[in-house]
Structure prediction request, 516 residues.
Amino acid sequence: MDVAAYTELLPEITPTNQPFWDGCAAGELRLQKCADCGRHRFPDSPVCPECLSGAASWEAVSGTGTIWSWCTMHQKYFAAFADEVPYQLVYVRLAEGPLVISTLTDGSPEPRLDQPVRAVFQPDGAGRAVVRFSAEADPR
Amino acid sequence: MPEKDVAIVGVGSSDFRRLYADKGRPNDVYQLAAEAFRDALDDCGADKRDIDGLLCINIGYGRFGEMTGLTGPAFVHDLEGTGRMSGVALQEAYALVRSGTAEMVACVYATNGRTAGLKYGGGDADPAGAYDAMYGMTSTGAYVSMMYQRYSTLYGAPEDALAPLAVNNRANGARNPIAVFQKEISRDEYMDSRFIAEPLRKLDYCIINDGAVAFIVTTADRARGLRKKPVRVAATAGRAELSRSYISPDFYYSTSAAVAEELYKKAGMGPDDIDCMQVYDNFLPTILFTLEGFGHAPRGGAWEWVRDGRVELGGERPLNTSGGHTSESYMQGFALHVEAVRQLRGEAGERQVENCRTAQYMCVSPIVTSHVLVAD
Prediction:
């Protein structure tokens, strides 16, 4: 991986999203939660999309979700990932509602629709802890 | 005062084939736009001084207005250069004319995506998009591929389910002298096409090319004095589905169904009354989502509905008769409007739909729009 190019792609850590990244480093998924209506949101945002309240806290959430879908990228759109193609991406619906793009951990089985997954936190090529998802092998 | 009937009276488009063939030559968007505008005026016999409303899409009104000497229109507006704006542009022109805010509106779109080397992916992500880009996720096509992966798994669509759409677009492009790609393809050639964002293949993707489109919209009364048979806008409807992701959790079904209900009620007709469908096909799965959301095909069954020739020229409901975005040109929906007009006028040559009286444009995207256009 082209680490310099990859580092450019990482979201900048700002005062408003710092709690999310601190959570990753601590091995837990933290989301913003509206202090008025309780809705979770991701990424961080100044107001609640449900009730427009500006009051929110950061809370550790379950880290569980289900695979909504996936695709395998063959095109070299990013220099950072040019050596990685083809690579698989997943779209995960978190138990708390938000949908996130991510990847499955090595050793996960081939994805299935609505397969349960859980968040794991691993250092990426640039050394930052990022969220990935682990799918357990189908017990059947 | 009653609201006015509205018609498209003049259309112009580039010779996309010629522009694409001459790959070494860079194209300027404003030149392309000015030529399409001139063609649209010639098409209807209007004078540029008649234009009192100007909508520019993917170009700026300031430079365009100065270049064409159209310096004093009563109403001017720029729209962003995205496909969803194609339906919105006609809706805005329709509203301006219907309300009397302007009497004759020109909608002018141009792109030089090929000259500029646009890739529609991998660019600088917005701050929220960075949470996707950090994993290597980018491009609208990849988001559509995720929708299609779920769709095809849920509904049992086989690996070659999109082939009839790819083949149909090329068969139609082969009958369109201005289409970029005029060579027919087979199912096997489609299956040999390489993956871009699997399950989508190169032949599921729109072309990236240069060109421009213009159309002129005015009142039905004014239309009667012009050169060509007017095409009346019988109804138009739209609804947004806004989110940070291009992925709609139900493939835009409920939003499209709401637009369809309003549209068909206003038009006093339904899917069975449509002679010719022009469907925004940035990527071929979008056609399936569209046909289902707008009630042409059963939910989950569009991939079966499009097999066996139903949407081919000569079939019961021809689709993307110009070749669509994978064969004619990627003018982000604008050229599909022009094709609807040419079909309703009987000007489509070898690809003419017989007795074409009604055409429907549909665009399924974060702003879903649809119009019914008729030849009275």
